[in-house]
Structures are given as C-alpha cells and as structure tokens.
Design a protein that fits this description.
Blueprint lengths: L2 E3 L11 E5 L4 H6 L10 H9 L8 H10 L2 E5 L1 E5 L9 E5 L2 H6 L6 E5 L1 H10 L7 E5 L10 H8 L10
Parallel strand pairs: 2-3, 2-6, 6-7
Antiparallel strand pairs: 1-4, 4-5
Helix pairs in contact: 2-6
Length: 165
C-alpha cells in the first residue's frame, strides 16, 4: 500500500480563513499541487468565494492570490497509507499538527473543512477556540457527486471571512 504525505501549509500571518482537506490524492501528488486533479472543483469553488477565476491562473499565482485574500490551505492528515485517492482507503493516518499551525495564525477567524473526512478528523484533533468558527463544507472532490452549483452555494458562506479584492 502506498505511503503518502501532505504538502506544506500555504499560509502567512494575515491568513483569516484556513481551508483543510484530508490528504492529497494521486493526481495532486503527481502534479505537486494542491487540488491537482482536473475534475476537482476546489479552484472554481474557492475562486467564486474570492471573486477571482483561479483556475485560469498558473499554480503559483493561485497560491499567491489565495494568500492575498487571506485564505490558507493545508490538510488534516500529515501522512497515511492509501491506495488510490479515495478517503475511504486511508489507513495508518498520522494527524497534522493543526493546533500548532492555528496558534501561529494571529488573524485566523475560521477553519473550513473540505469534505466529511477532513471535518471528522480535523474537529477531533483541534482544541476548542471560541474566537474561531469551524465550518464543514461539501467536498470539492469529483468523488462527491453533487452538482458544482450546489457545492458553490455552501462554499459561498466563506466570503465573510476573506479580504475583498
């Protein structure tokens, strides 16, 4: 079974919203990019939140645009064994040190979980913080077969946590 590791967090001191996934899938790991599967709806969804067509930008500009909007990225799992890309196949998961990261983000107002696995594991590992909202979102993954418009309606609530462009 294949052993996989998360990417480094994409954050800075002005991060207001931290979006947490579970663990990068095979296409993302191969590309060396968060949400690298071409059918993953993440970039259109978060682009809709910040008002920028992120999917049209080169990857490094996507990350810089997110950071300038106060949005950070990471995953709740630091490493795990998983054949393929489905969250249901994750085994021997080592949790990411979410508390340490969150403690380092002075402007943080909300943590959003991209999908059920991220929400379940992330909520289990986070210390309570009354000043930070925890938000569960429908997964951007193509494996979660809801229409993108339905997902976008749920993701729209994140707009109150980002810096307007």
């Amino acid at each position: 079974m294949s052993f996989k590791r998360a990417f480094d967090p994409v954050v800075d001191a002005s991060t207001r919203l931290l979006i947490l996934g579970s663990l990068p899938g095979d296409a993302s790991l191969k590309a060396g990019q968060y949400y690298g599967h071409p059918q993953n709806g993440f970039w259109p969804l978060v682009g809709g939140v910040i008002g920028v067509d992120l999917a049209a930008l080169p990857y490094p500009e996507r990350l810089e645009t997110l950071k300038s909007a106060g949005v950070g990225l990471w995953d709740v799992i630091a490493s795990a064994r998983r054949p393929g890309s489905l969250d249901g196949a994750i085994r021997d998961a080592e949790a990411a040190d979410l508390n340490r990261l969150i403690d380092s983000l002075p402007a943080l107002k909300a943590v959003a979980f991209n999908g059920g696995t991220a929400a379940r594991l992330g909520r289990r590992n986070l210390r309570p913080r009354p000043h930070i909202d925890l938000i569960s979102l429908p997964s951007s993954s193509p494996a979660y077969t809801r229409p993108l418009a339905e997902k976008a309606a749920a993701w729209a609530m994140l707009a109150s946590f980002v810096r307007n462009r």
